Amino acid sequence: MRLLRGLLRLVGWLLTPLVAWAASFGGASLGAAIGGGISSSTAAVGVTVATGALAGLVAAWGWLRILRRSPRLRETLAVAPDGTPLVAIEENPPKGPP
């Protein structure tokens, strides 16, 4: 049971980059569909990259917003409001003034 809990937390920590990656992939696909009608290949690639980057940023922003608003989700994933795993914070406490 302890191994399963640890595995689920690891998957939870990886959700933020996974959500951003999936959204950027979807955005780039949409951008490629839009850019297919553009005669300039450079502009088409630019549209693809821009829509992918925008979708990834919006998804990461939205996921972190959900984390900040949901104490239950933060507790389940054992993360701080900014998405940092609590284990990493406990192992490396912030250094204060001497």
Characterization of the model:
This protein has one domain (about 1-90). It is mainly alpha-helical. Helix content is about 75%, strand content about 0%. The protein contains 5 helices and no strands.
Helix count equals 5
The SS-based structural class is: mainly alpha
* Average pLDDT: 82
| Rg on CA atoms, Å | 18 Å
Summarize the structure.
The protein has five helices and no strands.
Helix and strand topology:
Elements: H1 2-13, H2 15-35, H3 41-69, H4 71-77, H5 86-91
Properties at a glance:
98 residues, single chain
